[in-house]
Design goal:
Elements (H helix, E strand, L loop, with lengths): L1 H15 L24 H15 L6 H7 L3 H12 L3
Helix pairs in contact: 1-2
Amino acid sequence: MDNFIEELKVKIIEALALEDVTPDDIDPDAQLVGGDLGIDSIDVLELVMLVEKEYGVVIDSKELGAQVFASLSALGAYIQKVRKGG
């Protein structure tokens, strides 16, 4: 899971063009949306597209999105759960 979280960190930084942010700056358990990274609702749309394109995982409701994007750990766990058919 740690390698997957690191992969997600890099993809998020690239997708959102987060300047002056390195993977080490992202706490996997910190609040993802509205937290220290400044990720807002527009950025969430970018992240939804990233997750769908890169991992084939669909996030199709606001409620699910709120749970999945609560933290990087939550996002990683959800992607892996769906990809394993769970």
